[in-house]
Amino acid sequence: MFKVRKEIDSRKFPGPHVIAAGQQLVKKSPGAYMAPSFLEYDGADDAREQAPHSVSLGADLIKVRLTSQRALPSSEELRAIVAEAHRLSRRVAARTDVPANEAVRRRLSSPGYLCSNKAARPVPTAWPLASTMA
Fold first, then answer.
1. 10 Å Cβ neighbour count for 99?
2. pLDDT per residue as tens digits for the range 36-58
3. 94 by DSSP, 3-state: which?
4. Omega of the bond leading into 36 within 30 degrees of 0 (cis)
5. Please, how many CA atoms are within 13 Å of residue 51, restricted to the half-sphere of its CB?
6. What's the number of CA atoms in the CB half-sphere (13 Å) around residue 120?
7. Contacts of 74 (CB under 8 A, 6+ apart)
8. Nearest Cα to 41, choosing from 71, 21, 68?
9. How many domains does the chain have?
10. What is the edge-to-edge ordering of all strands in the sheet holding 38-41?
11. Which residues pair with 93 in a beta bridge?
């Protein structure tokens, strides 16, 4: 996405304004499914280090993946990611296949975005819902 955004911004071809996240931060889970779009972290300190890494690659926002296929991050890990992202003037988004109220309960970002693979449904928060590209 970073390359596509650069091409559009340089007016090589027309397109929408792209807000890119890059890889999705996921809690390290030995033996769990690993996709090329995942970037693993192990613990709060490692999680905190991933935000500046993502920004250095061009991320406009930090995306966390909450999936039933892996261990869910602890509140401490999420707070570390959110704090570092906010220090870098970035928002945090979550892509999730777990119930939206679980993501909200973990207080990802305020304000922030909650992204879901499933059809949008009421979420007990003032946060907007946004869809993501596969």
1. 15
2. 889 999 999 999 999 999 999 99
3. strand
4. no
5. 23
6. 9
7. 27, 44
8. 71
9. 1
10. 38-41, 24-27, 61-66, 91-96, 113-116, 129-130
11. 63, 113
Which residue do the tokens 């890494």 mark? 53
Q: Please, what sign has the CA dihedral across residues 134, 78, 123, 100?
A: positive
Other residues' Cβ atoms within 10 Å of the Cβ of residue 48: 19
Rounded CA separation 63/94 (Å): 5
Q: Rounded to an integer, what distance in angstroms lies between the CA atom of residue 134 and that of residue 71?
A: 21
Distance CA 90, CA 59 (A): 9
Asked whether 59 and 90 are in contact (CB, 8 A), the reply is yes
Residue 91's SS3 state is strand
Q: Give pLDDT tens digits for 57-95.
A: 999 999 998 888 888 888 899 889 999 999 999 988 888
Q: Which domain holds residue 83?
A: 2-130
- What CATH number is associated with residue 122? 3.20.20.140
If pLDDT is split at 50, 70 and 90, which confidence band does 97 have? confident
**Residue owning tokens 């970073």:** 2
